Amino acid sequence: MTLINTLLLFMATAVAEIVGCYLPYLWLKQGKSAWLLIPAAASLTLFVWLLTLHPMPAGRTYAAYGGVYVLVAIGWLWAVDGIMPSHWDIVGVLVALLGMAIIVLAPGH
Questions:
Q1: Nearest to 50 by CA among 81, 78, 19
Q2: For 21-39, what is each residue's pLDDT tens digit?
Q3: How far apart are the C-alpha atoms of 52 and 69, rounded to whole Å?
C-alpha cells in the first residue's frame, strides 16, 4: 500500500470515527433527535471495518492513526464547528503528524 493510499485510508477512518462520535454529541449536548444514534452506530461500524484494512499490525496502526485523527479533528473544528484553528492547533497537528510519520516510515516496517 502506498503512503498516499495509507494516508487517505487513515483520513477516511478518522472521518468515520468523528461522525460516529459527533452525532451522539449532538443528541446529548444539543438536544437533537435520538435517531442520530442509528447513523452514529453505522459510522462507528464503518470506522472499525476501515481499521481492519490497514496493512500494519493493529497496535502500530492505532498509534499511527492518532496523528491523522488529530489532523482531521482540527479540520472538523474549522469546517463543521466554524472555529478557525489557532497557531497552537496547527503546531499540535504538525507534532502529531511527525509522530505518525516516524511510526509509519520507520525502516523495517
A1: 19
A2: 999 999 999 999 999 999 9
A3: 16
Contact of 47 with 16, CB cutoff 8 Å: yes
**Angle, in degrees to the nearest 10, between helices 3-30 and 58-79:** 60
Q: What's the CA angle centered on 65, arms 30 and 85, to 5 degrees?
A: 50
Place of cell 492505532: 62
Please give the residue range of the domain that contains residue 30: 3-105
How far is it, in rounded angstroms, from Cα 47 to Cα 11? 11
Q: Give tens-digit pLDDT for 5-22.
A: 888 998 999 999 999 999
- 3 state DSSP class of 39: helix
Instruction: Give how many domains the chain has, as a whole number.
Output: 1
Contact between 107 and 53 under an 8 Å Cβ cutoff? The reply is: no
Torsion angle of alpha carbons 98, 103, 104, 109, nearest 10°?
Answer: 150
